[in-house]
Design goal:
Elements lengths: L3 E5 L6 E2 L10 E7 L2 E6 L6 E3 L2 E3 L1 E4 L5 E3 L3 E3 L1 H4 L8 E2 L2 H4 L8 H45 L2 H39 L16 H7 L15
Parallel strand pairs: 1-2
Antiparallel strand pairs: 1-3, 3-4, 4-7, 5-6, 5-8, 8-9, 9-10
The protein binds zinc ion.
The site of zinc ion has 8 residues, from loops.
Length: 227
């Protein structure tokens, strides 16, 4: 049994995996002790993953899952001659029957819908807050303006000021219209990705739905952990 096993696409490796996403010299695995190994990525293009996390080098045991690139799971027991069989394990996803409740990929697209909505909403609300400040400043200036000038001029002055304010206030309604339109649009788009369900999901954030993991109505699955 070799202490260090090299893995890659090139024929000079101890374990040859002839796949386009495997680098010619992809990784090495070194035995440290019984059931303890050091996995090292040899600057491969598509990486080495231990239990789903990309690593540069990592200590692993036989209980850990070591994967090269997207879906080549290697069997350490076979590599080190502890077991007969194929070096490559069949990924679990390929073993599973297609799940007709799996809407996890479709649900991921809703994150952008949600984030865009939040951004647009903030822009409208902040734009309105600026307008409100201008209106408040207008009202504060009013008594000062009255004190500063004679009665007649004050009357005409406040008329001008009030006229100006009246022009600003309809702007407040416009911002409500914009918000309403945005909310309507969001309610139509932020729905269960199962087309035969279309349950409205607004009212909770994308992250909360992702955490909840499923549609309350049709039980479509939103989170890979729930598969
Ligand atoms: Zn649904």
């Amino acid at each position: 049994m070799k202490a260090t096993v090299s893995i890659g696409r090139s024929p000079e490796n101890d374990v040859v995996i002839n796949q386009p996403d495997i680098s010619s010299h992809h990784a090495t695995i070194t035995t440290l002790e019984d059931n303890e190994f050091m996995v090292e990525d040899l600057d491969s293009s598509n990486g080495v993953y231990v239990n789903g996390y990309r690593i540069k080098s990592s200590k692993v045991s036989l209980a850990d899952q070591v994967r090269l690139s997207a879906n080549h799971i290697i069997d350490l027991e076979v590599i080190f001659g502890l077991k007969e069989g194929s070096v490559l394990q069949i990924p679990e996803e390929q073993n599973k029957k297609p799940n007709d409740k799996d809407f996890t990929d479709e649900f991921l697209h809703l994150e952008k819908v949600y984030n865009d909505y939040r951004k647009d909403k903030n822009r409208i609300v902040q734009g309105n807050q600026r307008k409100q400040v201008i209106i408040r400043m207008g009202f504060m200036a009013l008594p000062l303006a009255i004190q500063a000038v004679t009665k007649e001029i004050a009357l005409s002055g406040s008329t001008i000021l009030l006229g100006g304010l009246a022009q600003l206030i309809p702007g407040g309604n416009k911002h409500l219209d914009k918000l309403e339109e945005l909310n309507d649009n969001f309610m139509v788009r932020f729905v269960c990705p199962n087309k035969s369900c279309n349950q409205i999901l607004s009212g909770r954030s994308w992250a909360v739905w992702h955490n909840t993991g499923e549609c309350p109505k049709c039980k479509a699955i939103f989170n890979k952990n729930k598969l």
